[in-house]
Q: What sequence folds into this?
């Protein structure tokens, strides 16, 4: 046993976390515990996994073992091969998830589960907020039994197997000596009482399934992926337990013109070369309606016109983001002879018939535009 591979024994990788080791041990121990399976081969296997767990669950021993030493070697081989200081309570802890001690009967009332529903919004709704009626499939308190789960006029009977304690203690003799174990009572599932006459309406669950309509106010400024928590709007718990929470997950439908980045909106407009050179004004359909925007004479392709405060309402503070209009200057593609003549005339006037072609200054260059794109500008 000294040379066995403890990782293989527990079926975990060498870099397994403490949690994974504990889980692996618990799973195996449930199968192989001598109380469950008394045959000698299984007991031998149980000893092996327990020894492996004792070493791998202790960071110091695990480190020693990883370095090639076996902490069990040289330890007292007497009591079933376990060394002194066997962490018995740890092992029991791993089994039962508690440090032992009496827990008493558990309550039938438990908290209801949380639920999440997706709410699709268009850009205008998420920018300004909206009110929605939502239909939720959920569980509500059974009105017949008020959550108790018992038929009217009846009460749960005290469980005669555990006398209402909800757990059963057992003393077993195993290779570890006498072991006192306690486990939930199988007859009452740990409740300590038995409902012999369940409520007909809810079959004893204390709640009934239904479809509920709730009206929710969605604040301005939410965005795709925002979760809104509606405390206590989830399903009611079994046995009349408190309700869980309802979460709304916002899904924002893409807008056909505006792209949202945080609280700012971006769009691109194409203007003809002549308009860019001479200046013009555009009518932009903003979220607030149509608005006039001046394009100054000499506007370059790629230039951005900012409409302050025409973006999305900020969720956690006051004010709104901006609307950024990216200007794209279109070069005419097909010129009629008269147009071509005029353009040639213009080129001549401007001395641009054979322009040398200049490198753009640094700030306008490709890489800085790439950088701006990264920075979300
Ligand atoms: Zn009921
Ligand atoms: Zn019982």
A:
């Amino acid at each position: 046993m000294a040379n066995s591979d403890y990782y293989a024994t527990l079926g975990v990788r060498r870099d397994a976390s403490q949690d994974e080791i504990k889980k692996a041990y618990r799973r195996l121990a449930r199968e192989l515990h001598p109380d469950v399976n008394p045959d000698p081969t299984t007991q031998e296997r149980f000893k092996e996994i327990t020894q492996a767990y004792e070493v791998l669950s202790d960071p110091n021993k695990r480190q020693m073992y990883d370095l090639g030493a076996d902490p069990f070697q040289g330890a007292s081989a007497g009591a079933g091969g376990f060394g002194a200081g066997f962490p018995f309570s740890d092992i029991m802890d791993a089994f039962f998830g508690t440090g032992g001690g009496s827990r008493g009967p558990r309550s039938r009332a438990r908290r209801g589960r949380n639920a999440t529903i997706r709410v699709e919004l268009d850009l205008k709704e998420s920018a300004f907020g909206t009110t929605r009626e939502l239909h939720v499939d959920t569980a509500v308190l059974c009105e017949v039994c008020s959550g108790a789960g018992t038929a009217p006029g009846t009460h749960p009977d005290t469980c005669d197997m555990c006398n209402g304690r909800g757990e059963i203690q057992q003393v077993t003799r195993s290779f570890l000596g006498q072991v006192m174990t306690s486990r939930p009572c199988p007859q009452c599932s740990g409740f300590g009482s038995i409902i012999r006459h369940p409520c007909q309406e809810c079959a004893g669950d204390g709640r009934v399934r239904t479809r509920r309509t709730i009206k929710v106010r969605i604040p301005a400024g939410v965005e795709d992926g925002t979760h809104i928590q509606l405390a206590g709007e989830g399903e009611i718990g079994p046995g009349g337990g408190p309700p869980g929470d309802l979460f709304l997950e916002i899904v924002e439908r893409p807008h056909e013109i505006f792209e949202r980045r945080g609280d700012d909106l971006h769009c691109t407009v194409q203007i003809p070369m002549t308009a860019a050179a001479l200046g013009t004004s555009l009518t932009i359909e903003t979220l607030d309606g149509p608005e006039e925007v001046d394009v100054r004479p000499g506007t370059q392709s790629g230039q951005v016109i900012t409409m302050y405060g025409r973006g999305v309402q900020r969720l956690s503070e006051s004010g709104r983001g901006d609307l950024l209009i990216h200007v794209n200057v279109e070069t005419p593609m097909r010129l009629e002879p008269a147009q071509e003549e005029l353009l040639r005339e213009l080129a001549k006037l401007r001395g641009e018939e054979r322009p040398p072609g200049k490198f753009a200054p640094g700030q306008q260059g490709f890489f800085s535009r790439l950088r701006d794109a990264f920075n979300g500008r």
Remarks:
- The radius of gyration is 37 Å.
